[in-house]
Design a protein that fits this description.
19 strands; single chain; alpha/beta
Amino acid sequence: MLKKMADTIRFLCADMVQQANSGHPGAPMGLADVMVVLAKFLNHNPKNPNWLNRDRLVFSGGHASSLVYSFLHLSGYDLSLDDLKNFRQLGSKTPGHPEIHTKGVEVATGPLGQGVANAVGFAMAAKYAANLLNEPENAVIDHKIYCLCGDGDLQEGISYEACAVAGNLHLDNLVLIYDSNNITIEGDTSIAWSEDVKARFEAQGWDVARIDGHDYDQIEFALEQAAEKERPYLIIANTRIAKGAGELEGSHHSHGAPLGEEIIKAAKIAAGFDPERKFAIDEDVLIRFRAALEKGDLAEAQWNKKVENLSSESRNMLNALLNPDFSKIDFPDFSGKKLATRDSNGIIMNEIARSLPGFIGGSADLAPSNKTELKGMGDFPNGRNIHYGIREHAMAAINNAVARYGLFLPFSATFFIFSDYLKPSARIASLMSIRHFFIFTHDSIGVGEDGPTHQPIEQLSTLRAMPNFYTFRPADGNENALCWKAALNLRAPSAFVLSRQGLAPLEKGEFGGVENGAYLLKRAQNAKITLIASGSEVELCVKAAEILAARGIGANVVSAPCFDLLCEQPREYVEQIIDPATKVIAVEAASALEWYKFADEIYSMKSFGESGKAGALFEYFGFTPEKIAEFAQETAK
């Protein structure tokens, strides 16, 4: 019966790709045997995809999405046979790579390796949730995380980073199933890869098993062993890509293209299936898979009783995690204080952590410089400070899963220049619209002596160009607090781009607010110029406006801590803070080309930075009140 179930999955996947004339049939067909056995072990409820104590199943090889959808449909999730037939079509529930609008998909896994890191994140979130909620003799969090990955996932550097974290933390709730078929798009993996994966994972602190991925007994035995492991567990399943597809079995030509009608028909005949039936599911197969409905209902009902038996303290904790109350946060007042925004941000984050038990995260080995330590709150897994090591990309992908887990508000911190290392994960966070907070300090040429390799120039523009991602660059401590208030209420990831050098506190603005992305800070009589800036350059613009005023030239000053929010404001608001009758000049110690959306001219960096003291660099590159005033005066003529 298991073979018939596996063949049903194989041919559903092949038919989906063939009908769409697009997709990847090879990996799903090769993994079908593993999938039917794994289905027996999974603790989940298709009627409630959000049940907290469900096992998480991550498909890191997102190109094998036809396998995901076949499994979800067969198990009874809200995914119909018509949805399968609509594979890869516009507006369907079955897009080319898994996305979270499809019920049952845990996380959007697009670029290879992301899902491996996401699985580590889910395992870490589960460990911390268990530490917060479980009581003696009453474990309400005891599920596992399973992840299916392939050769490509393990070749990507992010998987090495993430698996090193998992091994160091002894994540015994994590099972990684490696579909080892030795095939990539260009051919056999040996053309570019020859490492011993088993030795690699053992060196990283994992337990490893190697099995025949088409032998049901071996698959079952390996999965049974997961319950006894005290470390993360890798199962290397040796498989044949496009298993059962005749002449294309084992060939790289089956990886990323339809098999063809004749090959599919021949494969169905060889397996005892009707070659003329497409999307065929026999009743006996469906009954076996749909047992997940009754099994899941029972498991969730039993879990609900466990929750009822929790102490009032633990139930209150669970409620606080599920329903964070942002109104409880006592945001500090920084009036009159000259502080680097990385310093004010650290104070704010600690206030947030005191009010929200789900606020958790850490830095890529830079917490003392990022000022992100949650003081007195311990180290993960017993506390809230996570030490990721120097692994920016894995950190961000791990925290995407921590956010998706359903209980936590994670943050990831590093220097702004190293945002380049985690950009793919930040993009996935944007696609999923998750609350994930990126803390980027050392925001400009103000980094100083570390030189141009550490001075961000184009990074602000890069983040601002990303849809559904909000980049905040506050000009002082109070703006920083207001930026956090805005960010916490967004259903999207946010970045805080923060200074190393101290910034003078701003006076109260004339009109508008931070929640609108920008506001009128200083209004001049008969203004001819509007200076608009973010971060440390706002203070420079205020002083430049004073110089211009002494010369009889009126200049308004606009502080714009969030370009993305400003872009969402109606024209009426924008024109109230950026007077269209004035010459608008944007000032930013970055490339800043996006400011042409609002500005007539941009006063910005035209090159990379230099090595030297911050003050000397601002002088050298012309970011002084005098130089800004001179440029504005010439521009306004």
